[in-house]
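Notebook entry, structure prediction.
Reason for the run: the old model in the group folder had no record of what sequence produced it. Starting over properly, with the input documented here first.
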Amino acid sequence: MQASATEADFAAWMGATQGRVEAALARCLPGAQHSPARLHAAMRYAVLEGGKRVRPLLTFAAGELVGAEARRLESAAAAVELIHAYSLVHDDMPCMDDDVLRRGKPTVHVEYDQATALLVGDALQTLAFQLLAEQPLADDPRLQLEMVRTLALAAGSRGMAGGQAIDLESTGKTLSQTELEFMHLRKTGALISAAVKLGALCAGACPAALEQYAHRVGLAFQVVDDVLDAEASTATLGKTAGKDSRQGKPTYVSAMGIAHARHLADELRRGAHAALAALDERALRLRQLADFIVLRKF
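New structure, fully documented this time:
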Protein backbone atom coordinates (compact mmCIF):
# COMPACT_ATOMS: atom_id res chain seq x y z
CA MET A 1 0.00 0.00 0.00
CA GLN A 2 2.82 2.41 0.92
CA ALA A 3 4.65 1.71 -2.35
CA SER A 4 1.48 2.40 -4.35
CA ALA A 5 0.92 5.65 -2.45
CA THR A 6 4.51 6.72 -3.16
CA GLU A 7 4.13 5.88 -6.85
CA ALA A 8 0.89 7.86 -7.02
CA ASP A 9 2.55 10.82 -5.31
CA PHE A 10 5.44 10.71 -7.79
CA ALA A 11 3.05 10.49 -10.74
CA ALA A 12 1.14 13.50 -9.44
CA TRP A 13 4.35 15.51 -8.94
CA MET A 14 5.60 14.53 -12.39
CA GLY A 15 2.32 15.49 -14.06
CA ALA A 16 2.17 18.83 -12.27
CA THR A 17 5.79 19.62 -13.12
CA GLN A 18 5.36 18.64 -16.76
CA GLY A 19 2.35 20.97 -16.87
CA ARG A 20 4.38 23.85 -15.44
CA VAL A 21 7.13 23.28 -17.98
CA GLU A 22 4.65 23.05 -20.86
CA ALA A 23 3.12 26.37 -19.81
CA ALA A 24 6.56 27.98 -19.50
CA LEU A 25 7.53 26.76 -22.97
CA ALA A 26 4.26 27.98 -24.46
CA ARG A 27 4.88 31.44 -22.95
CA CYS A 28 8.46 31.79 -24.18
CA LEU A 29 7.92 30.51 -27.72
CA PRO A 30 6.82 33.20 -30.20
CA GLY A 31 3.23 32.85 -31.34
CA ALA A 32 2.40 31.89 -34.90
CA GLN A 33 0.64 35.24 -35.28
CA HIS A 34 4.03 36.95 -35.23
CA SER A 35 6.17 37.17 -38.35
CA PRO A 36 7.77 34.97 -39.64
CA ALA A 37 4.61 33.00 -38.91
CA ARG A 38 5.66 29.72 -40.52
CA LEU A 39 8.93 29.55 -38.59
CA HIS A 40 7.18 30.32 -35.30
CA ALA A 41 4.51 27.71 -36.00
CA ALA A 42 7.21 25.14 -36.73
CA MET A 43 9.05 26.01 -33.51
CA ARG A 44 5.92 25.41 -31.48
CA TYR A 45 5.25 22.19 -33.41
CA ALA A 46 8.72 20.93 -32.51
CA VAL A 47 8.50 21.73 -28.81
CA LEU A 48 4.96 21.64 -27.48
CA GLU A 49 2.70 18.70 -26.63
CA GLY A 50 5.29 15.97 -26.73
CA GLY A 51 8.02 14.17 -24.87
CA LYS A 52 8.50 13.01 -21.31
CA ARG A 53 10.29 16.24 -20.28
CA VAL A 54 12.89 14.19 -18.38
CA ARG A 55 15.47 16.97 -18.39
CA PRO A 56 13.09 19.61 -16.99
CA LEU A 57 11.93 17.10 -14.37
CA LEU A 58 15.55 16.67 -13.31
CA THR A 59 15.99 20.45 -13.16
CA PHE A 60 12.98 20.77 -10.87
CA ALA A 61 13.96 17.81 -8.67
CA ALA A 62 17.49 19.14 -8.18
CA GLY A 63 16.25 22.67 -7.58
CA GLU A 64 13.59 21.63 -5.11
CA LEU A 65 16.18 19.65 -3.17
CA VAL A 66 18.20 22.81 -2.49
CA GLY A 67 15.22 25.15 -2.08
CA ALA A 68 15.24 26.99 -5.41
CA GLU A 69 12.30 29.22 -6.34
CA ALA A 70 9.81 27.63 -8.73
CA ARG A 71 9.75 30.61 -11.10
CA ARG A 72 13.51 30.32 -11.55
CA LEU A 73 13.25 26.59 -12.15
CA GLU A 74 10.61 27.12 -14.82
CA SER A 75 12.97 29.28 -16.89
CA ALA A 76 15.99 27.03 -16.38
CA ALA A 77 13.99 23.91 -17.22
CA ALA A 78 12.52 25.54 -20.33
CA ALA A 79 16.00 26.55 -21.52
CA VAL A 80 17.27 22.98 -21.19
CA GLU A 81 14.23 21.59 -23.00
CA LEU A 82 14.64 24.07 -25.86
CA ILE A 83 18.19 22.84 -26.39
CA HIS A 84 16.98 19.24 -26.30
CA ALA A 85 14.19 19.99 -28.78
CA TYR A 86 16.57 21.73 -31.17
CA SER A 87 18.90 18.73 -31.08
CA LEU A 88 16.05 16.38 -31.98
CA VAL A 89 14.98 18.54 -34.92
CA HIS A 90 18.51 18.54 -36.33
CA ASP A 91 19.20 14.88 -35.50
CA ASP A 92 16.12 13.80 -37.46
CA MET A 93 17.17 15.57 -40.65
CA PRO A 94 18.36 13.55 -43.69
CA CYS A 95 21.96 14.73 -43.23
CA MET A 96 21.99 13.25 -39.71
CA ASP A 97 19.83 10.29 -38.63
CA ASP A 98 17.22 10.74 -41.38
CA ASP A 99 14.02 9.92 -39.47
CA VAL A 100 10.42 10.69 -40.33
CA LEU A 101 8.75 10.17 -36.94
CA ARG A 102 9.30 11.86 -33.59
CA ARG A 103 7.01 11.81 -30.54
CA GLY A 104 4.37 10.04 -32.56
CA LYS A 105 4.10 12.64 -35.32
CA PRO A 106 6.02 13.58 -38.49
CA THR A 107 9.42 15.12 -37.87
CA VAL A 108 9.77 18.84 -38.49
CA HIS A 109 11.53 18.53 -41.84
CA VAL A 110 8.75 16.20 -43.04
CA GLU A 111 5.88 18.34 -41.72
CA TYR A 112 7.48 21.55 -43.03
CA ASP A 113 10.73 21.26 -45.03
CA GLN A 114 14.45 20.86 -44.45
CA ALA A 115 15.31 24.55 -44.59
CA THR A 116 12.61 25.36 -42.04
CA ALA A 117 13.78 22.53 -39.79
CA LEU A 118 17.32 23.88 -39.86
CA LEU A 119 16.09 27.34 -38.89
CA VAL A 120 13.83 25.90 -36.17
CA GLY A 121 16.83 24.28 -34.52
CA ASP A 122 18.88 27.47 -34.79
CA ALA A 123 16.07 29.58 -33.33
CA LEU A 124 15.34 27.20 -30.45
CA GLN A 125 18.99 27.14 -29.47
CA THR A 126 19.29 30.92 -29.34
CA LEU A 127 15.97 31.23 -27.48
CA ALA A 128 17.34 28.96 -24.75
CA PHE A 129 20.24 31.33 -24.08
CA GLN A 130 17.94 34.34 -24.31
CA LEU A 131 15.91 32.83 -21.45
CA LEU A 132 18.99 32.27 -19.30
CA ALA A 133 20.20 35.80 -19.98
CA GLU A 134 17.04 37.82 -19.47
CA GLN A 135 15.20 36.00 -16.65
CA PRO A 136 16.19 36.65 -13.00
CA LEU A 137 17.61 33.23 -12.14
CA ALA A 138 20.21 34.13 -9.50
CA ASP A 139 20.93 36.85 -6.97
CA ASP A 140 24.55 37.08 -8.11
CA PRO A 141 25.06 37.97 -11.81
CA ARG A 142 28.22 35.86 -11.82
CA LEU A 143 26.16 32.83 -10.89
CA GLN A 144 23.74 33.49 -13.73
CA LEU A 145 26.71 33.77 -16.09
CA GLU A 146 27.85 30.36 -14.82
CA MET A 147 24.44 28.97 -15.76
CA VAL A 148 24.86 30.28 -19.32
CA ARG A 149 28.35 28.76 -19.43
CA THR A 150 27.06 25.42 -18.10
CA LEU A 151 24.43 25.09 -20.82
CA ALA A 152 26.80 26.27 -23.55
CA LEU A 153 29.41 23.66 -22.62
CA ALA A 154 26.77 20.93 -22.48
CA ALA A 155 25.45 21.81 -25.94
CA GLY A 156 28.73 22.45 -27.74
CA SER A 157 31.62 20.54 -29.25
CA ARG A 158 32.72 19.19 -25.87
CA GLY A 159 29.19 18.13 -25.09
CA MET A 160 26.12 17.20 -27.11
CA ALA A 161 27.29 18.39 -30.54
CA GLY A 162 30.65 16.68 -30.08
CA GLY A 163 28.96 13.46 -29.02
CA GLN A 164 26.78 13.55 -32.12
CA ALA A 165 29.87 14.06 -34.29
CA ILE A 166 31.52 11.00 -32.73
CA ASP A 167 28.30 9.04 -33.26
CA LEU A 168 28.24 9.90 -36.95
CA GLU A 169 31.92 9.02 -37.34
CA SER A 170 31.37 5.67 -35.60
CA THR A 171 28.64 4.35 -37.88
CA GLY A 172 29.60 0.88 -39.07
CA LYS A 173 32.32 0.54 -36.43
CA THR A 174 32.53 -1.55 -33.27
CA LEU A 175 33.16 0.46 -30.12
CA SER A 176 34.20 -0.80 -26.71
CA GLN A 177 32.14 0.01 -23.63
CA THR A 178 34.69 2.67 -22.68
CA GLU A 179 34.42 4.28 -26.11
CA LEU A 180 30.62 4.17 -25.95
CA GLU A 181 30.69 5.87 -22.56
CA PHE A 182 33.03 8.58 -23.87
CA MET A 183 30.59 9.27 -26.71
CA HIS A 184 27.37 9.16 -24.70
CA LEU A 185 28.63 11.19 -21.76
CA ARG A 186 28.71 13.93 -24.38
CA LYS A 187 25.84 13.14 -26.73
CA THR A 188 23.26 12.38 -24.03
CA GLY A 189 24.84 12.76 -20.61
CA ALA A 190 26.12 16.33 -20.93
CA LEU A 191 22.67 17.90 -21.27
CA ILE A 192 21.22 15.70 -18.53
CA SER A 193 24.05 16.76 -16.22
CA ALA A 194 23.43 20.40 -17.16
CA ALA A 195 19.73 20.00 -16.35
CA VAL A 196 20.58 18.86 -12.83
CA LYS A 197 23.26 21.51 -12.32
CA LEU A 198 21.07 24.37 -13.55
CA GLY A 199 18.32 23.38 -11.13
CA ALA A 200 20.74 23.44 -8.22
CA LEU A 201 22.38 26.69 -9.36
CA CYS A 202 18.98 28.40 -9.17
CA ALA A 203 19.53 28.22 -5.40
CA GLY A 204 23.23 29.12 -5.47
CA ALA A 205 25.35 25.95 -5.71
CA CYS A 206 25.42 22.40 -7.02
CA PRO A 207 26.49 19.78 -4.45
CA ALA A 208 29.07 17.26 -5.67
CA ALA A 209 26.59 14.45 -4.92
CA LEU A 210 24.25 15.82 -7.59
CA GLU A 211 27.01 15.89 -10.19
CA GLN A 212 27.82 12.24 -9.45
CA TYR A 213 24.15 11.36 -9.65
CA ALA A 214 23.73 13.17 -12.97
CA HIS A 215 26.77 11.43 -14.47
CA ARG A 216 25.26 8.00 -13.75
CA VAL A 217 21.71 8.88 -14.74
CA GLY A 218 22.92 10.37 -18.02
CA LEU A 219 24.63 7.13 -19.00
CA ALA A 220 21.71 5.02 -17.79
CA PHE A 221 19.33 7.02 -19.98
CA GLN A 222 21.33 6.16 -23.10
CA VAL A 223 21.74 2.48 -22.19
CA VAL A 224 17.97 2.15 -21.77
CA ASP A 225 17.40 4.06 -25.03
CA ASP A 226 19.56 1.50 -26.83
CA VAL A 227 17.63 -1.39 -25.27
CA LEU A 228 14.27 0.13 -26.16
CA ASP A 229 15.38 0.79 -29.73
CA ALA A 230 16.07 -2.93 -30.03
CA GLU A 231 13.01 -4.23 -28.17
CA ALA A 232 10.12 -1.78 -28.30
CA SER A 233 7.78 -1.03 -31.20
CA THR A 234 7.55 2.17 -33.21
CA ALA A 235 4.05 2.77 -31.82
CA THR A 236 5.32 2.50 -28.25
CA LEU A 237 8.41 4.67 -28.77
CA GLY A 238 6.77 7.35 -30.91
CA LYS A 239 9.82 7.19 -33.18
CA THR A 240 11.19 4.63 -35.63
CA ALA A 241 12.24 1.49 -33.73
CA GLY A 242 15.30 -0.55 -34.69
CA LYS A 243 16.85 2.34 -36.58
CA ASP A 244 20.23 2.17 -34.84
CA SER A 245 20.79 -1.44 -35.84
CA ARG A 246 19.75 -0.86 -39.45
CA GLN A 247 22.08 2.13 -39.74
CA GLY A 248 25.01 0.24 -38.22
CA LYS A 249 25.33 2.52 -35.22
CA PRO A 250 27.33 1.24 -32.25
CA THR A 251 25.11 0.79 -29.19
CA TYR A 252 25.29 -0.84 -25.78
CA VAL A 253 23.12 -3.63 -27.18
CA SER A 254 25.48 -4.27 -30.10
CA ALA A 255 28.49 -4.10 -27.78
CA MET A 256 27.27 -6.35 -24.96
CA GLY A 257 23.83 -7.75 -25.76
CA ILE A 258 20.45 -6.84 -24.30
CA ALA A 259 20.82 -8.77 -21.02
CA HIS A 260 24.16 -7.20 -20.14
CA ALA A 261 22.95 -3.77 -21.23
CA ARG A 262 19.96 -4.07 -18.90
CA HIS A 263 22.29 -5.13 -16.10
CA LEU A 264 24.51 -2.12 -16.74
CA ALA A 265 21.50 0.22 -16.63
CA ASP A 266 20.48 -1.21 -13.27
CA GLU A 267 24.03 -0.85 -11.95
CA LEU A 268 23.99 2.80 -12.97
CA ARG A 269 20.59 3.25 -11.31
CA ARG A 270 21.92 1.82 -8.05
CA GLY A 271 24.98 4.03 -8.37
CA ALA A 272 22.76 7.07 -8.83
CA HIS A 273 20.90 6.15 -5.64
CA ALA A 274 24.19 5.66 -3.80
CA ALA A 275 25.39 9.12 -4.84
CA LEU A 276 22.38 10.59 -3.04
CA ALA A 277 22.78 8.54 0.14
CA ALA A 278 23.78 11.49 2.33
CA LEU A 279 20.86 13.64 1.18
CA ASP A 280 18.11 11.60 2.92
CA GLU A 281 14.48 12.22 1.92
CA ARG A 282 15.28 15.55 0.30
CA ALA A 283 16.51 13.56 -2.72
CA LEU A 284 13.36 11.44 -3.07
CA ARG A 285 12.33 12.94 -6.41
CA LEU A 286 15.80 12.42 -7.88
CA ARG A 287 15.75 8.77 -6.75
CA GLN A 288 12.31 8.31 -8.27
CA LEU A 289 13.48 9.86 -11.52
CA ALA A 290 16.45 7.48 -11.67
CA ASP A 291 14.01 4.60 -11.32
CA PHE A 292 11.70 6.09 -13.94
CA ILE A 293 14.55 6.54 -16.43
CA VAL A 294 15.84 2.99 -16.07
CA LEU A 295 12.52 1.15 -15.71
CA ARG A 296 10.60 3.06 -18.41
CA LYS A 297 9.09 1.24 -21.38
CA PHE A 298 9.18 4.14 -23.87
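Summary: Residues 4 and 10 are 10 Å apart (CA to CA).
The old model has been moved to the deprecated folder.
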